[in-house]
Amino acid sequence: CNNDTTANVIIVCTELCTLHFQKENSIDNITSTLLFADGCAAVLIQHNKAAAKGLVLKNFFSDVAFKGKKDMSWQLSSHGFLMTLTGYVPDLVKEDFDGLLNKALKNANIQKESISHWCIHPGGKKILEAIQQSTGLKEEHLQYSYDVLKAYGNMSSPTVLFVLHKILQELEINEDKEAAVFGVAFGPGLTMETFIATYD
Question: Which superfamily, per CATH, for 8-199?
């Protein structure tokens, strides 16, 4: 989009987590079955700076907490994906997330107090609680994440876009309001991907 001012790029996130249902009665299988759901979301990205008010992507930052590689992982098998998701993952997030947040904010040259909206991937209730404990954010800062988790579950990659959609709906109601959005999603590893966007 930066190279072609006429580009219209659609990013589609589709996850069919139920395809990975495992019959073996193990804690990992039960946990992933209870937590994960099917979902699909899409986002349109354009270069057009003259377009109507909307989100403008400003910065990306990623990091990996390698000590969590055995605690959150996907493995291919002849019976689909085998997921490992231990109870230690929220502790990893609690321990490492504030450091990640500070690195991402420093990379973007923005202060934490400047963030008006938090677009946090709701990996689970304990994950969101761990983020609160790590950063000092209050539950209302993560309300959209809690709402999406309650309504849809963890749909893997589309989930953060569901949260972003709720934030956009609020911003569209308050047309004159400017905003800075910090987004983060988690994956195996433990991998953490962030973005910062403004609404102007």
Answer: Thiolase/Chalcone synthase (3.40.47.10)
